Amino acid sequence: MTTTQRREAVLAGPANRGTRRRASPTGHPRRPVSWGRVSAWAVLILAILVTVVPFLWMIRTALSSNHSLAANSASLLPADFSWGAFKRVFGMQSPEEAIAQGGSGAAINFWLYLRNSFVVSTMITVAQVFFSALAAYAFARLQWRGRDKVFTLFLATLLVPPIFTALPNFLLIKNLGLLNTFLGIALPTMLMTPFAIFFLRQFFLGMSREMEEAAKLDGANHLRIFFQIVTPNAVGPIATLSLLTFIAAWNDYFWPLLVGQDEKVRVLTVGLSVFKSQSPQGAPDWSGLMAATLVAALPILLLFLAFGKKVVNSIGFSGIK
Amino acid sequence: MATTEIPALTHTAAPVLKSGRRGKSDLTTALIFIAPAMVGFIVFYLVPTIRGLYLSFTSYDLFGSPVWIGLTNYVKIAQDKLFWNAMAVTGEYVVINIVFQTIFALGLALLMYHVAKSTLVRGALLLPYLIANVIVALLWFWMLDYQIGIVNQVIEWLGLPRVAFFGSGTWAIPTIAFINVWRHMGYTALLLFAGLQAIPHHVYEVAALDGAGPWKTFWKITMPLLRPVMVLVLVVTVIGSFQIFDTVAVTTGGGPVNASRVIQLYIYDKAFTEQDFGYASALSVILFAILGVVAFLQMKFLRGNESELG
Amino acid sequence: MKKTLATATALAAVALSLTACGGGSSASASGEINYWLWDANQLPAYQQCATDFHAANPDLNVKITQRGWDDYWSTLTNAFVAGTAPDVFTDHLSKFPDFVAKHQLLPLDEAVKTDKVDLKQFIPGLADLWVGQNGKRYGLPKDWDTVGLFYNKAMTKSAGLSDADMAKLSWNPDDGGTYEKAIAHLTVDKNGKRGDEAGFDKTKVAVYGLGLAGSGSGQGQTEWSFLTGTTGWTHTDKNPWGTKYNYDDPKFQKTIAWWTSLADKGYMPKLETTVGASVADTFGAGKAAINTNGDWMIGQYSGYKGVQVGIAPTPTGVDGKRSSMFNGLADSISASTKNPAGATKWVEYLASPKCQDVVAGKAVVFPAIKTSSDLAEKAFAAKGTDVSAFTQQVKDGTTFLFPITDNAAKIDAIMKPAMDSVLAGKSPASSLTDANKQVNDLFAK
Questions:
Q1: By CB neighbour count within 10 A (0-12 exposed, 13-18 middle, 19+ buried), where does C172 fall?
Q2: Among B residues 60-89, those touching chain A with beta carbons less than 8 Å apart
Q3: pLDDT tens per residue, range A71-104
Q4: CA separation (Å) from B185 to A239, B102, C117, C391?
Q5: pLDDT tens track for B53-64
Q6: Which of B256, B268, B275 has the CB atom closest to C10's CB atom?
Q7: Is residue A105 part of a domain?
Q8: What is the ipTM of this complex?
Q9: Which of B:90-109 have CB within 8 Å of A?
Q10: Fewer CB within 10 Å of terminal CB in chain C, N or C?
Q11: Statement: C28-145+327-394 belongs to CATH 3.40.190.10
Q12: Do residue A20 and residue A117 come from a single domain?
């Protein structure tokens, strides 16, 4: 797949778009099938295949018996079909049974971990996006001395090697008495991340100022402008960022492992890591690991399907209404 | 309101930041707005970074007290062959990863925007990002295994010779780069797609009225107006790919020999495995400086602080 | 090797006032004891021990945290630095010298003396491993392991090799002895030609006689140490606490050269083709006839459906005897424990027949106490696994101890790339002389 092909295909779009709107208000284009369009679809389908096929392999593996996987490594169908892996993920097997099927002897309290993951990810997402939006607005729209310098400083945190921060932050959380609490897991990313601020600032910069100026003439202060004009108009970027933040929080592993060992705050990634190899040179419980991965990804997939339309479709039209 | 104003196509960007339309400073409001983020910034980033900077001038094994040794760590790094090797390896990874990821993501974003507007397509392309990167690495590690991996099985069915994806010095870094392109392609495309959505339709309409062809529209409208988001994506992904660690750690562990020993893995090994934390801090400071220069150049050349929509 | 180390964020530090707050001084043994281990397969056994322990000591409650090997050491170091280390944890020989050097472990000598822990109940040698250079004891042994040959019975049978043949293989570094003959004969190419037949195509091998896990870095525990051990070669000048490594010894380099030659002959996969799935999974897929591996992998190997596994002892070598590295785990107490009395009680319980018999009964690992170890052998037999290949080495006294020295991590950082390079055919075995110099320079400082 060459890029030129794709560009051609894609470029047919914007030019047609204007005429299309005029020609058919219903939004259904009437055009002969063009070469560009066909190859565009071909590229898209290829991309989707490359993306999705490994997931089919995951499903196939999750539905196999772990002990039969090696011997059937070239078979495209589940090796010795079994629901055992999913039973292990949901903690429905006794340790002995699990070990016999190639799993581990660790007890799994799936629904508790799921709830914990939801609590932590929601806390992080709501707080981080809100505080970052406030800051991003100050960086994009307010006039104050030293603004660009402070922003550069904030942005520079993107460059901080993670190795600097883990241990001091761990010590801090410990000294605050927040080990094994939801707040302890969430706190370091609740107030800001450089990415979130950078992301929203770039979108705020790109937004039209007309309405803000008008509101200002009407005597609205910045707080009102932020809540009543900027935020509603930036629903798209904010929703996109929220989704990405939620996913990142959901998938985070090492920090919750460090801070939230206790069962009552253990999140899914930590709880389900027992499916990885537990001893040196050992092999993972492949079917269990794949089942766990699929099950853990399902909630965010559903979240995306529920809000995905809003996330991306609202962006383009927000400034126009 | 916005629809009534039609920016001219040739409009050169008036730097928004310097538009002194308001004389009054919003300092107080700004302080209130950035206060929570500022706390997070100072506590969780600034303080640890300054401490790391201090430790880079010390000999420190994590358990005892740091001992000041001046520039010794830096002098050692200059003569450290493994450090230079790590930088070269990391550079190779960044180039492969960024070039492919950006081209694929931009292509996909344009396709999502113009061809397939369905949430299902977007959802499918975002799927890999829903999986934690360590698991993604393990999955591909297994699927790409030389002897029993399904990919090599398929390659053999096609009559081609098997490939030692992780074991050969030539393939290790491209393979790792590919895995991360796979995981981040849809995510990056989504960011760019959001940027495309933010471009007002009327700009295209004007372009169409002016008789601009697709090629011209892309370069004269889409790319310039996409720039703020493009800069965001490039800065974030370039810096992010310099921080590559997990994928290497769970697959090759830096091998074969040192062919995939990227800088973060080297830092990690020094800090954690060998518990030479002062040296690792110095390595991190150098990486920090390099990334700073890279980011600065990117912002400068891409003019990331400006928007075409005045 | 795919030992990995968790995430990017992993470690770090910039600890300030760490060790400032020391351990408390609660003399009475009561409260909660945190205990860490990594092997999830052993978790049910130790959970049972903890329950029994609580029943006997109602004031003490053991809380077990299990996390996999890949995360275990990074989180443990973090915990040590932050002062949140578990009271008691499963310790490994390659890691404990570092912890001792950094004063993170509590000496157990006092307790051993006052509570009269019988060090003779353990299999000889195991208890000595856990004594530091200062003569103090930092761990009580919990289990042991040796190395053996796992082989695919269907393959040996069709090659005309009986279990008895497999059990009496012999090896030498010149022509590889009957060990190499068996490996060659078990190798089959895509046309069905065996490795020792005319017309064998080494570029199209279907089944390798010998599987390959990796280069073994500086220890070669399951890869080559059972061969070098028969040549009279030792890793270090003395063990434990040697200060000079012997990778420049021609005996060692000759053995490695022979081993590498197997890959050139097509009897063993090339190193570059082994980075991916685990060597055991490759065995389970029928891609190799023999794997050399440790006894902790018994469960893994005997689990594969459709593969009949036999276990043979390692071949006899140059000195006419077998050889196997003898490694073991122990339980150590962290110096920062707030409850030294309770922690000591728990460690002593873990090292007692009461707990080790429970572990033995689960047939997952061999306990360190002789009588418990015998029980484990029976438990394995009851599950249909003959483990005599592993126990025989102990009974015959053909084991040698895991090399314990300082600088383990730095040595690994030098030896892993050096051995990889040799095994991949990029450097000759003689290049190890240079690596050896780098290793020994670490001790000169």
A1: buried
A2: none
A3: 888 888 898 898 989 998 888 888 778 888 877 7
A4: 19, 8, 60, 53
A5: 999 999 998 888
A6: B268
A7: no
A8: 0.83
A9: 103-104, 107-108
A10: C
A11: yes
A12: no
